Structure formats: structure tokens, C-alpha cells
Amino acid sequence: MGAEQSQLEKLKDTDFQQNRITFFINGKEYNVQTDGCDPEIGPQYLLVDYLRDKIGLTGTKYMCRQGGCGACMVTVRAIHPVSGQKEVRSANSCLLPLFACDGLEITTVEGLGNKRTGYNPIQQRLVKFGGTQCGFCTPGFVMNMHSVIQDNPRFTTSDVEYSFDGNLCRCTGYRPIIEAFKSLSTNPSEELKLQCSDIEDAIVCPMKTLMAKENSMEVLNVPRNLYLGGTSGEQWFKVTSLPALFDVLERFTSSRTAYRLVAGNTGTGVFPGDGPYQGFIEINDVPELHYTSLDQMGLVLGGGVTITNAISTFDKASQMEGFVYAKEFYDHLRRVAALAVRNRGSIAGNLMLKHAHREFRSDVFLLFESVKATLRIGSSPTFYKDYTLLEFLELDMTGKVILSVHFPTYKGSYYFRSFKVSKRYQHAEAYVNGAFLFKIDPRTFTVLERPSICYGGITPDFVHANATEEFLEGQTLDGVTLKGALLRLKHEAVPNFMPGEASPEYRLGLAQSYLYKFILGVRGNSVGNRLKSGGEDIPRGNNKGKQIFDTDKSKWPLNQPVPKLESFPQTSGEAEYINDIRAELDELFGVFVVTTVANATIKFIDASQALMTPGVVAFVTAKDIPGNNNHAVFLTQQEEIFVESRVRYAGQPVGLLVATDKYTAFNARSKVIVTYDNVRKPVLDIRDSIRTRTKLNERKKEETNLAFPCRGINGQTAKDLRTNISSPQTTNEEVNGELITITGEFFTHAQYHFHMETQNCICIPTEDGMEVLSGTQHMDSVQATVAGCLGVPNNSVSVRVRRLGGAFGAKISKANHIAGACAVAAHVTNKPVRVQMDLGSNMHAIGKRLPYLFKYNLKVDSTGKIHQLDASVYCNPGSVANEPTSLYGALCFQSAYRANNWNLKPEVALTDTAPNTYCRSPGSAQGVAGIETVMEHIAYTLKKDPLEVRQVNFMKKGDPFVGVPGAKLPLDNLLPGMIAELKVNGEYDSRKQFVEVFNQNNRWKKRGISIVPQRYPNYYPDLRFPTLISVYHVDGTVNVSHGGIEMGQGINTKVAQVVAYTLQIPLEKVLVKPSTNLISPNATITGASVGSELVCSSARVACEQLLERLAPLRKQLGNPSWEQLIAAANGRELLLTSQYQHAQGELVSYDIIRCDVIKDCGQSISPLVDIGQIEGAVVMGFSWWLTEELIYDQNTGELLTTDTWQYKPMLPADIPEDLRVTMLRNAPNPFGVLSSKSTGESPFNMSVSVLFALRNAIDSVRREIGNYSWYQMDGPVTREVVRRLCLTSSEQFVV
């Protein structure tokens, strides 16, 4: 205490509370001592970890830890330092330091509702609308919606659409979540009201309930100055006035202490490597930094004003004269980061990020500079100076603070416009952003003064297009001026190359396009209707959808549209995931150390500095493995748990660093030094592998036989299929005209699974072996891996899984890797070890969806019918050919089409990347995309409607399947009827005509439309799931345990429905328990989209066996109730359990406006679950084709897109505005479990339709310039690719 007191002597004029913070969580007061009582807690310690690890509120999740996924959202109430009013905002608890929580009221999902006290209306609506699947993201969505309601009880449906730009969901496709929340708004549609008609509370009642509950909470009204000492000598000051702020600044600068001002702390999500810092100054309660002033003379925003509050101020300014830019600012800033980030992040903080990182494409900086805003920067409480933003960039900000931002007014004929194109519409940094301010004579379009033309994303130092500005002054905005301006812009705006970013050519093209778009917008009607629309933004409507399906009430609860059984606990945070399990005594935390190069050998590993770090316990490497260094136990090729010598890919685990807590482990990881020998340039592209690794690829193909265990294709079966698939089936058919030869290629890219719960495992040494809590889709494989690497019998390894937070195939074989490493660490230390991979390591170390390359050559007649087709189907399994899918991809290449004289050759092409693995619709997604590209190519060549070409090639009853001699289509092809129905319900003909007319009438806006059919091989592979039914005599309730894994697909819900239906008992009497290898030994993988059906089949037979056992007693008792029957059976010592295992053989900028899906689901076991599976699969597929791009360093092989800042799955504003799903009516599946069909994968394959709709639009653009040639269109079709394929150049810009 004396040392701390002496440190504060120079600050004696200010009263500082020392080493204690106070805040409320869910109405309960918490006081945290920060003077070393808990060595883990310091300035870097985050609220999310306090909630989860210190007080057990595990409903708050995390994944990215950078404010990019929304799983960690909480509601925060704080007193505004100027108004004194409470502000209620959502916040990312993964960005909020615990030290910054003093005086806050925090609400977590546990504070809203639960099974004991009842559920909040938000939770109820989400369940009602089927808005949860894996449920890992659900608490974040619930808390964000709660924050919106608390902030604005009169919110509208548009507010809902705007508010979820920071919440990712990989499972649902967003539609049910958004509709659930819109149903709570003040203006829900009649359809939404109808869906809520059976919910007891009316629309207004939830609002009253919510608001009443929150009014009872206490608040800390008096901000205070704080001094908090960190365990490593860091100093944290919280100040409440400018004098106190500058006192602390003077202290730090005079002692040369590296410091950082802390407001929202959101910058750490963008640049986590900044620092290290020893000093922190929290400034959220400094009133002088939060003042705003708005009048006819101008606008002033304090530097501490949050982006959210700035947006509100600009909205007010837009109603006043002179603020011509305010509406554009309002719209543009709503696309900066995400709502929860904008809620905490300050405008000065954003500007300081730009100051420190010139490469940062700050929208805030760009907008402010474009209108000549100035910064008032203080160096003491009484001295300040005004600077332009360009001067600010060159200013040494040591000891200085941005006090305020001052905006001028512009009265007269000023025009302002800003632009942003990014990887996706929301929550993404711009490729290039732009902002223009012109004063123009509205009659002559003469530029009356030097304009302001600003860009970000050209080079780190490029801001103003000075030469272009000078040229345009005094010019009339006509065609000649336009060309002159574009030429000058081309010469001065020369983009630099940035690894992992858009190409310089594309960025220059965007810069020129922005200027052209601005001029078209200014000139308006004077340029004619065909050009005018080019000056307008593409409008985005609100999301909506329609779901059509049959349900037979006579079979309920089977075929009943019920929400998932786990829905309520998922919405309340009560659903337990692996990392939610309470830590064991002396539990350790492990983090992977991975390689940074591919194609090398390990020279030396030096962990000495890491091991000297307090709290680090061990660094576990290959030499510590007592058994086999292999986690691919059921596959043909070895995959090392820890690399021994040869490095196969960048991101390959070298070892596991184990420490007493995760902060220590992560901080010490960087101290492990790995040096390499024989570093060679990696082979990363499938084409390079085909060219340079012919012999290796051929050898690996023969070693694996292209087996596909996930689909029940073993080595011998694969060998037979390869033989048959490569033998053309010759049938002589009538030829219409001469045959035309078509040749082409098509490439499909990789995709990261993006399961919200990253790979994880907890291993606990026990008296009889090892208990393993693994996030796996395959318990048997984890059991064998752990036993193998430890050199112990399999029966000493216990595996338990309750649920996964998403998987999509990533946790079939790759979960073994984490479990093996975790088990070795637990063995070495003889302590429980937890591994929860950080997102970056997960993306580096774990393989993705396999990229494909199709090379095809075919002959067609004048109708488009295929008479001969030769195709090579290459897949890229990564650096180890353990899970190639090209054989299955080749089988699915046939899809819905007659294969006459087809010769398909599945191949592999290894690259120096992480061993790839199965990902939703493995092989089939690529195969369907390949053949549909062929159909598009035929149609383009023959100038026919692609749908017409598809229909002429459709299979008919009796047509053969490729690869399987004698196998034929047994029934009539349903697709012609389904397409006819889709054309009617989807208004295809009228929409197609509208698209054609629209494209003729618009030069710079185009639309496209496409229909893609599919035949999906819905068969049941050799997958086995032991299932146990247990009935309790006291009340007749039933427990079920099975070998499948619940990961969002609704397997437990379907099983419970089948059990209740078969036993003829209420659904409420059935509970499904976690999966274990004790009750379900030797269970196979849950995957291939058939796990639910196969478990249901096993459960049904087990129930039937039980009923057969009870039948004599039932007959003897007459007509007993279920409860009476079970009680009597127990009294007669009848066994009230039944177990069964199923056996094989028993069973540019663009916007997506509308998507119609018709899917044959047979007779759905659970329609609401299946609708969710269909929608989620379609949106995940759209995301694969459009926004998700993996970029590697071409020299090292290291993945560059490893977090939510760089890798961009779709958000709600990216999905189809109108998503309509129809489950084919009156179509029971005679070969399926209870007449059902799987739904999880086949809709994903149909998402390729978006690719061809884009092609349809791009074709129209190319025809504008007389280009009618075929072009290869590979995924992902990012905005950059769209522009390149459109052949757009500035020479085409006219007015």
C-alpha cells in the first residue's frame, strides 16, 4: 500500500479510489479487489472471462474474442457523463476489460429468464419461431435484442434488421431469428402476428414485462476516479475530469511509460498486437469528452462520443439546413463495425487507430476529412489547438488528447456522397471507401469550387485525389470532363499491393467507379434512364420468408412442427457445452504452438523462455507421447498429433503449452521459438499440384482407393466404384444435327466450417484411465485416438458428449487431434487439462472443405442433349490424402441427368495445406456445381435457356446410375413436376421476363435468375448408433441415450418424437440424455445428413421390442394407462430397458432479392426442424459461393484470413430478402425411416443457383460491350470477381 501511495503522490489533488471496482451483474453487487488477490486479473482481463470463470455465468459464450461474432453479448447500463441519464447498450464482453466495469449495470442471459422463474418473451419468441439450432450463438442474439428493447421500447421491424450486424449464426440462415424478434416490434406484419396467435402474451405485454423487470435494478450514480494496480506492474487509472486525465498523462509521459487511453477498447479487436502497455487511462466518465453541440453554425462532437451517439446526432443534423453530408454520414456510419462495437467505440478512438495504423481504412477518418472537419487536440486542461485531420496524422500524440471534432456547415448547392464496397454488406472493412463534397451549379453542372475527393484503401498515405480535385474546379460535369477526371485519378491513385487484400486493379476500378457514380447521381435525369440507375445504390428491403409443409395431426407428435427440445435452455444459457463445464480442481489450460511455414523440417524448438513464465507448467511435444503419434486412427495415412520433423503445412501443431490459466498460456505461447531447415516454397493451388506432383498424387489415390467412410464407401467398394465410373456406358441415341464439342474447366474453393464453438476437449485423469469430454461427432474415434496415443486399453477411456456448438463435419476426424493432444498433456501433468482453441489456431491448424477442379469435354446435339462426356474430377485433400471426396463428387456429378457415354475420373491433388476434411455436403456440393456449370456452358454455347437444357437431359425411370452396374432410377423422376410447381409458385416466367426488361432498360444495374434441380443420393450408409430406452416405474417417464451427437440438426428432438409416437405417450414424458461410449459403444460418425434418421430407426425398434415385452401384461390388464402398465411391469420384474443398433441394409455489389426452394423431404419427422436445416444449408451455401475467401501467403503457406476481421460469412443483410421454402407435399419416402428423407445437406448443393443467377446478370453486362464469349466463373464470386467478369473499365463510363 505504501508503494502504491508513493506512486500517487503527484496526483494528490485528485481523490483516487484504490484497487477495488464495484459493479452489478443481474442485479447483484460485485466487488473485485485488484491488488493481487487473483493473479489472473489485470488490465487485459476481460468481462467475458470473469462471467464464465469467476462467477459461473457460462450462458455468455465466446468464439472470436474480437467483437466479430456476437456470442459474448451482454447488456450494459451506464450513466452518461453529461446528461446524467442511463444509457442502455449491447456490448461485446470479449472486448470489455473488467477494470472498465466499475459503476456499470450488466445483464447477462441468465438475468432474463430460465426454467425456474419462467422465460422472457424474447426467449419465448425465439423458440416459437424455431430460431435455434446448435444454440451456441443464441444467448448473444437474445442479449442484443434485449438491449435494443431496453434502449428503445418502440422499436420497429427496420430497427431489428439494422441491429444484428454483429451476430453470426452458421446454422439457421437468420430468417427465423429476425422474424422472431420482428414479431415483438411495434409494427409486425400480419403474417408474424398470425404466427404468434397461440402465444398467451400480446404484442405489448412483453414490453411491459421486460421494462418492469429492469426498473428494479440499482445503479451506481456517482462516477469516481480509480487507481488499479496490475499483477505485472501495470497501472490502470479511471479519470472523471480533464485535469485528472492530464495529470495522469503527465505522469506517464514523464516516466516514459507506454500507455493507452481506454474508451470502448474495441480497437483491440482490430489490432490485437498493439502494445504492450504498462499504463491505461479509462476516460469514459470525462464529461468534457462527451459534449455535443448542434446549431446553425455547426456541429461539435466530443472525442469520447460513441459512434452510436454520433450517428444519432448526424440523424438530427440531417433535418437542419447546412448539413448536406449528415444523412450520408448517418447511413455510412451504420455500416461501420457492428452495433455493439459502435455502442462502445468512440470517434476519437477510431481516429487514433488510423493515426497508429495508416493502412486502416477508417470510414470515420475519411468522412470527417471529406467535409473539412477539424480536431481540437489538448495537451493540458487549459491549452488546446485545432488541427486538420491530415495534420493530425503527422502529429506526435504523446501526452495529447482529441477533445472534440468540429464540423462546418455548407449552405447552397453542395452535393455530398460517400461509398463503401466490402466483402459483405455489414461489419466489414471496405476494399476502398470514398467520400465526395462538391459545390455545383444545378443548372449547368459546373463545379463552382475545388471539390473534396477522398479515398481510403488506395495506399496507407493516399487521402485526397489532389490532381483530380484541381482539374475539376470550374469544369462542367460532361463526358469530356469525366474522361479527364478519370485519367487524372488513374495516374495519381495508384494502389499498392497488400497481401490478403483486394488487387490493386480492382481498388483503382472502385475509385474510378465511385467518381462516376457520384457524377451520375448529381446529373440525375439529365443522363437518361438507362444510365440514371447507375448513380443509385442498390436498395435492400427487409427480410421475409414463407414456409410451406404438410403435417398429419393423426401421427402427432411424429410429423408435428415442434421447436427443438433444447431451444429454451439454449435461449437462457442453461444449455451446457464442453467449455461451460465447471473447471476441476488444479485444472490446467493448453494452447497449441503451430508452425509458421509449410514444406520444411524442424531444426530446433526452444521453449525455455515460455517455461520460465510464472504459471506455465509444461510444453508437451511429440517426445512426450507414450503411444502412437497419430490422430487419424481409422484412416489410411498417419497424421501426427505433434510434428516430429517434417512440416507438412503452416499451422501444424508443434506442441501444447500448458499453464494454470488461459491468459498465462496464451501470453507465453509467443515465447516458444521454432526454427526451420529446408524451407521450400509451398504448393498451395490444386493446379500447381496437378502440374508438379503427378506421381505423388497417383500413389496416394491408389493407397486410399478414394474411400469415403462418411458415406459408407470402404476401400473395396471404392475400388469397385472407380472401375465402373471410369467405364463409359454406351447407348446409341438419335442425334439432332451435328454434334458440338464443348471443353471447359471449373474450380470450387475451400470453405472454413465456421462452427461457433471452436474445437475443444477436457481430459481428466481418473483411477481407471481417462475421462474425455470432447467436442466430437465421433466418440469411437476419439476413444481410439486417446487410447492409442497413451498406449492404454480402449476400455480405460470414457467419452461423453452432450451437444456441440456447431460442427458441419469439422469434428468428425479433426476432434481427435485436440483430444489426443489434451490427453497427452493430462497424462504428462497428471492433472485435468482443458483445450479450447482460439479462432486463429483453429483456422490455421484444422482443414477445410476440399477444393475441386473439374476438367470436362463433351459432345452435345442442337437440343443440348449430352451424347458423350469425359470429365476429370480433382479434389485437394491438403497435405495428407486421408479424406478425399472426389469419388463421391464424381458420383454426384450425375445429379439429375442421364449418363450416356460418360467417363468420369476421380483424382487427388495434394497441396501443402492443412489436411482437409468433410464439410457439409462433402463431394456432393462440388459435384452438383460441376455438372450444373456444364449445363450452363451448353446453354451459353447453344444460346438456349439453361433450364431448357437441363430438362432435355433429365433422367427417366430406368436410367442407370453411374458407378453402380445394374442400378437404375427405380421411380419416376419427380423433378419435372417439382420444377413446374416451382415455376408457378416462384412466378418464374414473369420474373424472368421482368429481369430481361430490367436489364435492357438499365446499363449499370443488372438482375439475374436461375433454377437449379438436383437428385441427391438419399441412402443409408453403414453407420451404427446403439440406442438405449429406459422407462421409470414411478411415473412412466422415459430416458433415451444414443450414439448420435446433437449439434444443431435436431437429432434429439426427432428421436424424442419417434419414441413418444411409438410408445403412444406424450412428448413431455421423453428426455434425451448425453451420449457416452459406455451406453453406445462403437458408435459411428454422426454425419452424412442421415444420423437423425438412423438413430430414430434404432429408437423405434428398441421401443417396439419393449412394447412386445409388455404386450402380454397389457392384454392381461385390459386397457391400462401407460403409467399403470409400467408400474405393473416393474412389480412383475420385467426389464424396462431396451437397446437396439441399426444395421446396414435395413434402411460487386449485389443483393440476393428472392430465393425459392422446393425440397422433397418425404414425410418429415419434425417439419420445423427440417425447415431450419433447409434454410441454414442454403444460406451457408450462398456464403460459400459469394463471401467466404481463404487467402494464403504464397511464400510461407500461412493462412492470412484467420479471424472475423478477414473471413466473412454472411450476415442478415446478405441473405435473400425473400426466402421461401416448400417441402414437397404428399411425397412419403417408401425407403426411408418413417417415410422421411434427410434435409441437412442437399439444400446446400442447390445454393449454386446463386452463382448462375449472377452469371445471368453478368452475361447482360458483357453483351453491353459486344462480348458473347464463354467465361470461366469459379467460386468464390466476390465483389472483385464480379467486377472482373463484367469487364468493366473506365472507358465505358459516359454521361
UniProtKB/TrEMBL annotation:
What broad class describes the main subcellular location of this protein?
Answer: other
* Localization per Swiss-Prot or TrEMBL: Peroxisome
Keywords of this protein's UniProt record, alphabetized? Answer: 2Fe-2S, FAD, Flavoprotein, Iron, Iron-sulfur, Metal-binding, Molybdenum, Oxidoreductase, Peroxisome
Does the keyword Iron-sulfur feature in the UniProt annotation? yes
SMART domains found in the cross-reference section: Ald_Xan_dh_C (SM01008), CO_deh_flav_C (SM01092)
Name the needed cofactors.
Mo-molybdopterin; FAD
**Ranges for region Disordered:** 533-553
Pfam families per record:
Ald_Xan_dh_C (PF01315), CO_deh_flav_C (PF03450), FAD_binding_5 (PF00941), Fer2 (PF00111), Fer2_2 (PF01799), MoCoBD_1 (PF02738), MoCoBD_2 (PF20256)
Domain 2Fe-2S ferredoxin-type residue range list: 19-112
Going by the entry's taxonomy, the superkingdom of the source organism is recorded as Eukaryota
Give residue ranges for domain FAD-binding PCMH-type: 229-412
Q: Which InterPro entries match?
A: 2Fe-2S-bd, 2Fe-2S-bd_dom_sf, 2Fe-2S_ferredoxin-like_sf, 2Fe-2S_ferredoxin-type, 2Fe2S_fd_BS, Ald_Oxase/Xan_DH_a/b, Ald_Oxase/Xan_DH_a/b_sf, Ald_Oxase/xanthine_DH-like
**Family (UniProt):** Belongs to the xanthine dehydrogenase family.
Q: What is this protein called?
A: Xanthine dehydrogenase
